[in-house]
Write a structure and sequence with these properties.
Number of strands of chain B: 18
CATH topology of chain A: Sufe protein. Chain: A
CATH class of chain A: Alpha Beta
Oligomer: heterodimer
Largest sheet of chain B: 8 strands, mixed
Number of strands of chain A: 3
Largest interface: A-B, 22 and 20 residues
Strand order of the largest sheet of chain A: 1-2-3
Radius of gyration of chain B: 22 Å
Strand content of chain A: 15-25%
CATH superfamily of the largest domain in chain B: Type I PLP-dependent aspartate aminotransferase-like (Major domain)
CATH class of the largest domain in chain B: Alpha Beta
Helix content of chain A: 40-55%
Chain lengths: 154, 421
């Protein structure tokens, strides 16, 4: 079991947990959401700032304030690394890739070119109780980004 | 160790799951009994026997099996009645769980009658309630315009009763509180609180979900002014199955309250104009009840009575004292609630600063140790102590000191795994 445990708590995850990237709530932002994991009480408040240019819309900033376990905190940190600076469409594709990895029951081989540090979460998929932890901030980001896009469209 | 159940190893053999081996060949160390208890073979066998040999619907099947099934179901009510020392066996209402029991009450108090709650009335609960003893009252207050008020908690995990006379007043219609806290472990003085509540004419409702598994209960022996008017517990925490709970309430009160759910079984007669209702307890048991679960609960409370609830309580206190002493040796670990085992039940919540409870629980689980991590359905209690979540170990009558040792070793391992000093 130690091997599964070590697969869950990869050094990369513990590093992100201890030194989270992009943490804190920042201005400006177009949408702010608050998501909770009702089974454990983990919480995240997350803001998305989108920017527009000739190449389309991209994720200019994602800022957040979160409380929770190492998996949920590290996932938020890695998520911001992956989506900030990316076109929204590409960021959504990375979200989908991460979701597929989490729902893959440990059978999905992660693509390091797409997920970068996110591949460290492959071991989480074998712990059904912890998948929601890894997905909390990703779900919040998707929600906030969709909300921001809808509001801008109006 | 003094206080342990005699023949503990024999008692453990009554619970087949305790010999489970988990991943990596680790023996199960089950310290999550406040969440749900394990089941002795006699409960499993009784349920299987009922399904194999006596299964039929109750109270309406006019055949031999129907009679046997009805007798088994009503015998279970007698057993539960004896377990609680109920003054009258018809005061025992079977529900799905205690959550349903509390909702039954909070819903029926909305309607006209002697106990109706309305605008200006007050319901008093406490900051250490399980969500199931909070949300139904919040719903009642929203629906009636009544106000919800709360007993606070002292820093050492006891109810703060210093303002009881200001809190429980002529406006108070209901005082509903937990007997033994599922987070802090605190055993609350329901006698003193009931006395005050009864002085002002309020109903006293006791959530005995954690008390019924651990404390001897004898309702009939309690002085009337200190006896709750309503007391509920759930089967699966008292070595019984899930899907069955008990709501005991004073007969005259049950008689006065309107039905909760309508349907078969709860009626006297039905016409197109109106219906009249069966006498209690059937008035509150609409539809086909969880028959085999009730029969299983009957076997469960008989099993507990066979061990002797005084002995079970003594065992819990001995194991809890041993656990508190062990937890005190883990650097940085903070226990919530009373630190004296004689003032608490067997659920012990704690935190290790720097390691989230989820991570603690996962590392312990990798060693076969099952604990609860999260808010234990007591978010206001957690907020009171400034924490978002905790890790909770909870022992029961089958817990051994060696299992507590395994927990303490596991916590030391957890600290080293996450590189805490």
């Amino acid at each position: 079991m130690t091997t599964d445990l070590d697969a869950l708590y990869q050094e990369i995850i513990l590093d992100h947990y201890k030194n989270p990237h992009h943490k804190g709530l920042r201005e400006p932002f177009e949408a702010e959401v608050h998501h909770v994991n009702p089974t454990c009480g983990d919480e995240v408040t997350l803001r998305v700032h989108l920017a527009h240019g000739p190449q389309g819309t991209w994720v200019e900033d994602v800022s957040y304030d979160a409380m929770g376990c190492s998996i949920s905190q590290a996932a938020a940190s890695v998520m911001t690394d992956l989506v900030i600076g990316k076109p929204v469409g590409e960021a959504m594709a990375i979200h989908d890739e991460f979701l597929t990895l989490m729902q893959g029951k440990g059978q999905v081989e992660p693509d390091e070119d797409v997920l970068e540090d996110g591949v460290a979460f492959a071991g989480v998929a074998k712990f059904p109780a912890r998948i929601k932890c890894a997905l909390l901030s990703w779900m919040a980001w998707k929600d906030a980004t969709t909300t921001a896009q809808l509001e801008e469209a109006q | 160790m003094e206080g342990l159940l005699p023949d503990l190893e024999v008692v453990r053999k009554d619970f087949p799951i305790l010999s489970r081996v988990l991943a990596d060949g680790r023996p199960l160390v089950y310290l999550d009994s406040a969440n749900t208890s394990q089941k002795p073979q006699v409960v499993i066998d009784t349920m299987v026997d009922h399904l194999e040999r006596h299964n039929a619907n109750i109270a309406r099947a006019m055949h031999q099996l129907g009679a046997e099934s009805t007798a088994a179901y009503e015998a279970a009510r007698d057993k539960v009645s004896a377990f609680l020392g109920a003054p009258d066996r018809d005061e025992v209402v079977f529900t799905k769980n205690i959550t349903e029991g509390l909702n039954l009450l909070a819903n029926t108090l909305v309607w006209p009658g002697q106990h109706q709650v309305g605008p200006g009335d007050e319901i008093v609960i406490t900051e250490m309630e399980h969500h199931s003893n909070i949300v139904p009252w919040q719903l009642l207050c929203e629906r009636t315009g009544a106000t919800l008020r709360w007993f606070g908690i002292t820093d050492d995990g006891h109810l703060d009763l210093s303002n009881i006379d200001e809190l429980v007043t002529e406006r108070t219609k209901v005082v509903s509180l937990v007997w033994v806290s599922n987070m802090l472990g605190t055993v609350n003085p329901i006698d003193a609180i009931a006395r005050r509540a009864h002085e002002v004419g309020a109903l006293v409702v006791v959530d005995a979900a954690q008390a019924a598994p651990q404390l001897p209960i004898d309702l009939a022996a309690m002085p009337v002014e200190e006896r709750p008017d309503v007391l509920g517990f759930t089967g699966h925490k008292t070595v019984g199955p899930t899907g069955i709970g008990v709501l005991w309430a004073r007969r005259d009160m049950l008689d006065q309250l309107p039905p909760f759910l309508g349907g078969g079984e709860m009626i006297e007669t039905v016409t197109m104009e109106r219906s009249t209702y069966a006498p209690v307890p059937h008035k509150f048991e609409a539809g086909t009840p969880p028959i085999v679960e009730a029969v299983g609960l009957g076997a469960a409370v008989d099993y507990l009575s066979g061990l002797g609830m005084d002995n079970v309580h003594r065992h819990e206190q001995a194991v809890t004292a041993y656990a508190l002493a062990g937890l005190a040796t883990v650097p940085g670990l903070r226990v919530f609630g009373p630190l004296d085992a004689t003032q608490r039940g067997g659920a012990v919540s704690f935190e290790i600063p720097g390691i989230h409870p989820h991570d603690v629980a996962t590392v312990l689980d990798s060693r076969g140790i099952a604990v609860r991590a999260g808010h234990s359905c007591t978010k206001p209690t957690h907020a009171r102590f400034g924490v978002q979540s905790t890790t909770r170990m909870s022992s029961y009558l089958y817990t051994t000191p060696a299992e507590i040792d395994a927990l303490i070793d596991g916590l030391e391992y957890t600290r080293s795994y996450f590189k805490l000093g």
